[in-house]
């Protein structure tokens, strides 16, 4: 390696003017000296060849030591700048789980376990309690209409795709039926507006109400990472745990907000049936943004929550 190469590396490796001057001075004293020979007058020789070799090796070691120590110092400064000025960039280089430990209170842990147990229950049309839940939903949705048989064309009026609602639950499970019941029990006016498509200019091919509700339940489970065996790993799931600490019905309330938001997005996009998945993605994105807001500690703090009372 030539002396000019070393000088250029030292010069470009420093970004501070004063240190630059110091390094140039070092270079004039040492880097002008050939690394493999003596710059002294040839007429003058050392008393011992071994002493000359030792002096050369010592000077080489000093140059390289200075070079590496400079580079290490600059690398450390560069890393410190990243940590202090853009911690979010560094954070994306690491798995979310390694950035911070999540500690649940006994109440949070209990409520999370109860919720996960609910999610494990599939809808079973042969179970009496599941059949009764379907009848309860009909009675709440259509209080002035007689409850039809469990297999009937009448179920299509609620937005089930076939004559047998049990075939439409799929990945939503029994919790999606519980979500619909909670919606109509706690926000009946909002529920009826969506069921009967009372607001806005509707599409010729509208989304089926009940089946849309099942899909919203499934979307929330994925968004909040509630299907995982351990702690939620998504940021939305972590924020949701804070809501769960304040309200055991946080999931059901968030479902109602999501349903109302879905209908608003449907109207905004002037969507039709084939665009339902696109609308659902927009709902998920909006909920993730709202859950990340610093002042959200309850479901009622979400900006979209007010839509339930319009």
The biggest sheet, with number of strands, parallel, antiparallel or mixed sense and barrel status, is: none
Average pLDDT taken over every residue:
78
Percent of residues in helices:
55-70%
Give the class from helix and strand content and strand pairing. Answer: mainly alpha
Counting DSSP H or I runs of 4 or more residues, the number of helices is: 13
Q: How many DSSP E strands?
A: 0
Low-pLDDT runs of 5+ residues are: 1-47, 63-99
Shape: globular
Beta-strand content bin: under 5%
Query: H/E series, N to C?
Result: HHHHHHHHHHHHH
> What is the first-to-last residue Cα distance?
76 Å
Radius of gyration: 34 Å
InterPro entries: ELMO_dom (IPR006816), ELMO_domain-containing (IPR050868)
Protein name: ELMO/CED-12 family protein
Domain ELMO: 129-291
Organism: Rhynchospora pubera
3D architecture notes:
- With 310 residues, the protein is mostly helical.
- The protein is 60% helix and 0% strand.
- The protein has 13 helices and no strands.
- Helix 7 packs parallel to helix 8, helix 8 crosses helix 9 and helix 8 packs across helix 12.
- The longest helix has 37 residues.
- The radius of gyration is 34 Å and the shape is globular.
- The N terminus is likely disordered.
- It holds the Pfam family ELMO_CED12.
- This is ELMO/CED-12 family protein.
């Amino acid at each position: 390696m030539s002396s000019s190469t070393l000088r250029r590396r030292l010069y470009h490796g420093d970004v501070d003017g004063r240190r630059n001057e110091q390094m140039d001075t070092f270079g004039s004293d040492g880097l002008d000296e050939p690394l493999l020979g003596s710059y002294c007058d040839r007429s003058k020789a050392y008393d011992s060849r071994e002493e000359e070799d030792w002096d050369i090796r010592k000077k080489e070691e000093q140059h390289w030591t200075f070079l590496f120590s400079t580079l290490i110092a600059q690398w450390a400064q560069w890393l410190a700048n990243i940590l202090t000025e853009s911690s979010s960039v560094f954070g994306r280089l690491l798995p979310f789980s390694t950035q911070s430990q999540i500690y649940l209170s006994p109440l949070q842990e209990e409520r999370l376990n109860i919720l996960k147990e609910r999610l494990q229950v599939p809808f079973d049309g042969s179970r009496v309690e599941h059949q009764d839940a379907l009848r309860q939903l009909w009675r709440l949705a259509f209080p002035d209409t007689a409850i039809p048989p469990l297999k009937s064309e009448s179920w299509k009026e609620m937005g089930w795709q076939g004559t047998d609602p049990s075939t439409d639950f799929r990945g939503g499970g029994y919790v999606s039926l519980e979500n619909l019941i909670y919606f109509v029990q706690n926000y009946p006016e909002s529920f009826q507006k969506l069921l009967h498509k009372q607001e806005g200019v509707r599409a010729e091919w509208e989304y089926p109400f009940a089946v849309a509700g099942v899909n919203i339940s499934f979307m929330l489970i994925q968004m909040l990472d509630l299907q995982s065996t351990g702690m939620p790993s998504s940021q939305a799931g972590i924020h949701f745990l804070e809501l769960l600490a304040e309200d055991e019905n946080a999931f059901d309330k968030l479902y109602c907000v999501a349903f109302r938001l879905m209908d608003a997005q449907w109207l905004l996009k002037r969507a039709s049936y084939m665009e339902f998945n696109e609308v659902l993605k927009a709902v998920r994105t909006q909920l993730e943004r709202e859950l990340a807001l610093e002042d959200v500690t309850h479901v009622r703090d979400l900006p979209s929550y007010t839509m339930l009372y319009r």
